[in-house]
Write a structure and sequence with these properties.
Length: 492
């Protein structure tokens, strides 16, 4: 970013202030302007709110220095707000601004904590909060939600506990905003029991707190608890909002509870909800996961706007329930509607190819990811392709694909190839796959069973006896069969 020389000169001066932790007490001369300084233009702070770039902000900052407006915390806070929260801002600049202010007010601390909490490095928000407490600044009710948002981003239940204890000490642990973020922070950090404890201990709850707890259960695959709590919320007279309805639909999709999903849909229709993108997609997903594909398609068609997630839900739903041709037709419609597929789209399409046995088309789709769409295949795509090649009897090609992967193959991918080896009686490839699987899990019972059966089918009884002795002597464990098609993690 280029700025003129005068701005650079001012910029080197503007941060020559005490650092955090060395704030000086206000001087009796702090409000006296130099004799040559004109009263500052009252509009500079307002101009800061209308900035669209850091270049503009630098110019306004320079003018504030020249007119001594920067000594006004309100003016400085407007600069800080843009640099910390705007997509076009600069968090490093915002940090320097805060350090340059002699006595930052609570709004300024909160603004920078908030900006850091939603940044790629939320740990910095927690560190800033620690520094703030270290110099004796008492947090307010708006501080804790931002710090807890950072804890949520870090998925740290221990940090949530520490911030929780701080909120208790200053008497803000029952504030609705603090409670809501505590429940969310614990829920996303594998602390669902603690989240429910916070929820149960507050004397009163609003719809946001109820919704966050329902979401917590749904996002942790605790569908029954999510549905029970949702019913309790409605019974106590709280009207569900968009996020709570979306969560309960997600729970219905996870648990196969079509009846509850249909009731929720009827409620949404009565309230005129369900056609916007988020709720509409949740409805399509619920019906598709439950196999009600006609209703899923009806909800899909009734949505005036759709995003790629909506399309992915339909493609995956059709593929999982054996409607591969329709799933591939949906994929081909993407181009007609100028919708760009993402990596999840190709998982659904490759899964459909597996169900339909469309090896050539699947290979073409896999190769097009990088060459046509600029999408780098992930391990899920390699897994689907290995499964597709294995089902088609192309075992050597599947093995070569595994060897070319940027990552080490996991048990799912190797297991899918081993199952295919068993189907086609390819002992040579199977033996190599078994060696790799035993490196990952040395006491795996299943690999010995598959290989032993293949030896038996080939009449290699000495090898069968050898494997049975190994299975008898070792403490082996049974594992389920392998297939990448229909894997829950791949289709979400």
């Amino acid at each position: 970013m280029r700025v003129n020389a005068s701005i650079i000169t001012v910029n080197t001066y503007m941060f020559r202030r005490p650092l955090i932790g060395k704030h000086r007490p206000p001087s009796s001369h702090s409000t006296i302007r130099p004799a040559h300084t004109q009263p500052h233009p009252p509009h500079l702070s307002l101009l800061a709110d209308k900035c669209s770039s850091m270049r503009q902000l630098l110019q306004i900052h320079a003018q504030m220095l020249v007119t001594a407006t920067i000594h006004d915390n309100f003016a400085a806070s407007r600069l800080l707000s843009f640099s910390a929260l705007s997509p076009d801002g600069d968090l490093n600049y915002a940090s320097k601004l805060l350090n340059s202010v002699q006595q930052p007010n609570m709004f300024m601390w909160n603004t920078l904590i908030r900006g850091l909490a939603i940044s790629p490095n939320p740990r910095e928000a927690v560190l800033l909060y620690v520094n703030m407490r270290r110099i004796g600044v008492t947090p307010g009710k708006h501080t804790f939600p931002f710090v807890l948002k950072a804890c949520s981003g870090l998925r740290s239940v221990e940090l949530c506990k520490q911030v929780h204890s701080q909120a208790v000490k200053v008497g803000l642990d029952l504030d609705f905003h603090v409670v809501n973020n505590l429940v969310r922070g614990y829920s996303v950090s594998s602390g669902l029991v603690l989240a429910r404890q916070v929820f149960d201990e507050i004397p009163e709850r609003n719809v946001n707190v109820w919704t966050t707890m329902v979401c917590g259960y749904a996002q942790n695959d605790r569908a029954e608890e999510a549905l029970d709590l949702f019913n309790q919320m409605v019974a106590e007279g709280f009207e569900p909002n968009g996020p709570s309805l979306s969560s309960v639909l997600s729970a219905c999709a996870q648990s196969g509870c079509l009846n509850m999903g249909e009731k929720t849909h009827r409620y949404m229709m009565e309230k005129g909800l369900g056609t916007e993108v988020i709720l509409g997609t949740a409805l399509v997903n619920m019906y598709a996961k439950n196999g009600a594909l006609v209703m899923a398609r009806t909800c899909f068609d009734n949505m005036p706007q759709k995003n790629i997630i909506t399309w992915n839900v339909m493609i995956s739903g059709l593929a999982v329930h054996g409607h591969a041709k329709e799933a591939l037709d949906f994929f081909q419609e993407l181009e007609k509607y100028n919708v760009m597929p993402n990596d999840s789209t190709f998982v659904g399409v490759l899964s459909a190819c597996c169900h339909a046995g469309m090896l050539d088309f699947g290979r073409k789709i896999f190769n097009s990811m990088r060459s046509v769409y600029g999408i780098e295949p992930k391990i899920q795509h390699y897994g689907c392709m290995v499964d597709l090649l294995g089902r088609g009897g192309m075992l050597s090609e599947a093995e070569e694909l595994i060897n070319r992967m940027p990552w080490k193959a996991d048990l799912k991918i190797l297991g899918a190839l081993l199952s295919a080896c068993g189907s086609y009686g390819n002992i040579e490839v199977a033996e190599r796959v078994v060696k790799k699987m035993l490196v990952l899990e040395h006491d795996n019972h299943g690999v010995y069973v598959v290989l032993s059966n293949m030896y038996a089918d080939a009449g290699r009884w000495d090898d069968v006896s050898r494997l049975r002795e190994i299975m008898k002597d070792g403490s082996l464990k049974k594992t389920p069969g392998w297939s990448l098609v229909g894997d829950k993690d791949l289709l979400n």
